[in-house]
Amino acid sequence: MSAALAYEWTRLRTIRSTWWLTGIAVVIGLLIAFGIGFGSAVDLSNHPRDLGSDRDLIGPIVATSAAAAGAPCLVGYVLAMIGILAWGHEYRHGMIRASLTALNSRGALWVAKFAVAGAWVAVVTFVVTVVSACLGWLFLQDYGVPVFTARTWGVVGREVVYVVVLTWLAMAFTALTRSQAFALVMIFLWPLLVESVITAILNLVPGLRDHSELARFLPFGAGSRMLDVTRDASSLFGSPLSATGGFIVFGGLAAVLMVVSWLLLQRRDA
Questions:
Q1: What percent of the chain has pLDDT over 90?
Q2: Greater confidence, 240 or 94?
Q3: Is the pTM value of this prediction over 0.85?
Q4: Does residue 270 surpass a pLDDT of 70?
Q5: Is 115 exposed, middle or buried (0-12, 13-18, 19+ CB in 10 A)?
Q6: Judging by beta carbons within 10 Å of its beta carbon (0-12, 13-18, 19+), is residue 212 exposed, middle or buried?
Q7: Model confidence at 159, in pLDDT bands (50, 70, 90)?
């Protein structure tokens, strides 16, 4: 197992795409945090007021680059591409045979890929969220806005978990389809378009309106509930889902795809 981990660690850190995607994720996260922090500071300086309960929301929103406000977790989607390429490069360039020959263990290769990619995106996500929070603090400290609160740290932890699960889901899907291009398209197309269309159909078609609340169980929408602090949940699987409920739905899909990808890797020809 140690040989597989060393093999995958070397592969991950020596390809340019890993560093490019990591850099893009960092830049996106910090630019959004800068915009939120600077914009909020300018607004408060021009219109001083008591923010009330909204004061506690600004920290999580800045730290997560607005994902805590319901926006797409762009940092997570960019980092998930690292996971896609972890399997995609193997199949696209025919390297899977060389990898399996070198390690002589399909199971070890599978575990190493998920473990190393998961660790990489977890560390990057944590760094981006903490530095983003620091940017927010620099702009908002003079206006009495708390940034480093228990709520902020809780959301930071949940974002790390969310990005790891998202990456693993994307990796498992890539391993199943063996198509890097298809996985790269679907990682954006499904959450940003397909789920929105399904939700719209459930809400607009008269015969389906009674079932519109089922849209909350769509996996990526459910996963976003892990980060959203703007809407309080009434129960685990209520409307909206709680953070734990969102994790169960989103993480459950990732777990199923991972198990299937494991089984198929053991049985299919390389």
A1: 53
A2: 240
A3: yes
A4: no
A5: middle
A6: middle
A7: very high
The mean pLDDT of 22-41, rounded to a whole number, is: 93
Q: Where are the alpha helices (DSSP H) in 179-242?
A: 180-189, 195-204, 219-224
C-alpha closest to that of 221 among 255, 183, 194: 194
Measured from the Cβ of residue 166, the count of other Cβ atoms closer than 10 Å reads 26
* Nearest Cα to Cα of residue 183 among 76, 81, 72, 73: 81
Cis previous bond, 72, omega within 30: no
Q: How many domains does the chain have?
A: 1
Per 3-state DSSP, what percentage of the chain is helix, strand, and coil (rounded to 5)?
80, 0, 20
Identity (one letter) of the amino acid at 250? Answer: F
Query: Could you list the residue range(s) of the whole structural domain that residue 238 is in?
Result: 2-267
d(CA 165, CA 145): 31
Q: For residue 206, count CB atoms less than 10 angstroms from its CB and return exposed for 0-12, middle for 13-18, buried for 19 or more.
A: exposed
Q: Report the candidate in 246, 63, 33 with the shortest Cα–Cα distance to residue 152.
A: 63
Question: Could you tell me how far CA 231 lies from the centroid of its own chain?
Answer: 19
Res 202: pLDDT: 85
Q: Measured between alpha carbons, how far is residue 45 from residues 38, 134, 188 in Å?
A: 11, 19, 37
